Amino acid sequence: MTKSPTHYKEKTNKSITEYFKKSKSDWFEIVDNDVKKWDNTKVDEFWKLIRLHKIDKNDFDFSYFIFPTFDTNSQYSKEKYSHLNQKKINLTFWETNLNKEFNKHVNFNNSIFEGKVDFDEVIFGSVDFDSVKFNDVVCFNNLTFNEIVNFNYSTFNKTTYFKDCKFHSSANFRQNEFFNDTIFMSSYFGGEVYFNDIVFHEKIYYLFSGFDKEVRFNDVTFEKETMMNSTGFFNGASFSNVKFSRTHETTIEDLVSLDVSKITRKEYDAYSELNYDYFEKVSRHSSYPNKDSTEPLLNYYKKIIENKIDNNLKGLSELSEFRLKKILNYIHNNDYQIHVFNLKFTNINFPKLFTFRRINLTKCDFHKSDLNDIQFKECDWGNEKRIIFDYENRDFHESESIYRQIKKNYESNKNWELSGMAYISEMEMRRKRLWKEKDLFQWLIYSFYGHFGGYNQDFKKPIISIAVTIFIFSFFYYFIDYDIIKALQRGTKGALPYISIDTEKPFKGYWLILKNIELILGGTFLSFFILALRKRFKQ
């Protein structure tokens, strides 16, 4: 048991509680760069009393408490606990770095963390951080949340990190404000995750993380740079009424993730450090990673595996170089593949600085969203002939509009090939819509246009159509004089009237009717061919 400081032996539980809830504003002074310099004696005393009156009594109700800094590197702590030989002496809820676990529900509701928060390698059951004010840097590092965790109505005033955390149940972030950079990195979410009514005032990064259940972003505002990189949404993610920054970049790219259950802890540590090294590499010299000039993560791994990068394996972990390369090979060959995730965007007005890069978009749903300004770079549309969304048959009119927006988007970027693929999809949706609306005449026109002309996007279809027309009509012309050669000549002449043949007046009587029908078809298919060829080589 932890011993109480002498001058607190006589204090009642009430006075202790008042002490915990009392303002700590006179425990620190502000020095350069808005840094708080704490009175280490008072800080050490606070944490001793927390251990004595709360932790030792298995009482984890910290509601309305006002906490000082978690940084307890005072001279007193260094001298008393130097025998522990710890890299970082952080004596807060526990005296050592062993068995740091809250074995029942923890309540931090309405608390204020006035100083730096540094939860490291702690195991939680269920925990509530509702209506909490975090007034300094927050570091949640290598935490395990075995049950539901709530961060509702809380504010984060300085940089916030969630690194190497495991959420085995639901995680709720509702009506939060993040006033500084926020980073979710190398973390695993096993339950449903809700980000509702949140404002990110500064940069927000989701890096190298995995979400097993659906993630919901509802009424979220991203005011600055936003990046979702190498993150897996394995049961989908929904973005509803989300506002992305119109003045700063937003990037969703390389949506991949690693199954951490298949590797050891040391391997995972090495993998995490390597990912962090990669992120530092691309963000160096810039406040925001310039991904247009940076290799994809998969290529970065591949270069290490193939010994094309010499200095990235030094100091990453205790693993041997051979073992590290083995895990990288495993990642590259098995789990680091581009997954097809269900991404639902509802009522989103995408700004010009929003970019999808190197992801498969076939399962994306852009319901009631504006795609005219969005940037699509190296994206996979799942079909070599046209762009296809899985949901396209849900509402033909809306799908037609979505494909039209994508077509205009690619046209404005002078990407004629993908613009043409989007145009084919737009026409297909129009054809299906006309059938559903029982407008059979127009449906027939668009069906003819698509089947024989490829909507002017495929010059092979008109050529095939002309060839088939010639052979079909040549079969009928054979019965004029039972001469195969002359039948083929008539068939070619009927489809392509500028061709000369050796028969004078090859069509007489009723055969002129058939010839004129062939002429109309041949002329139409030839027009389709010329228009498609022009479209293909348009600059």
Give a verbal description of the structure.
The protein has 539 residues and is α/β, with parallel strands linked by helices. It has a domain at 460-536. A 9-stranded parallel beta sheet has the order 4-8-12-16-20-24-28-30-32, with no helix packed on it. Strands 6-10-14-18-22-26-29-31-33 form a 9-stranded parallel beta sheet, with no helix packed on it. The protein has a 7-stranded parallel beta sheet with strand order 3-5-9-13-17-21-25, with no helix packed on it. Strand 1 and strand 2 form a beta hairpin. Helix 10 (460-481) runs antiparallel to helix 12 and helix 11 packs across helix 12. The longest helix is centred in the C-terminal third of the chain and has 26 residues, at 511-536. The radius of gyration is 33 Å and the shape is rod-shaped.
Q: What's the gyration radius in Å?
A: 33 Å
Query: What class would the helix/strand composition place it in?
Result: alpha/beta
Low-pLDDT stretches are 1-10, 74-88, 282-295, 310-320, 334-338
State the separation between the terminal residues, measured CA to CA: 80 Å
Number of strands: 33
- For the report, how would you describe the main beta sheet? 9 strands, parallel
Outline type: rod-shaped
Mean pLDDT: 82
Helix content: 25-40%
In spatial order, strands of the major sheet run 4-8-12-16-20-24-28-30-32
Number of helices: 12
Strand content: 15-25%
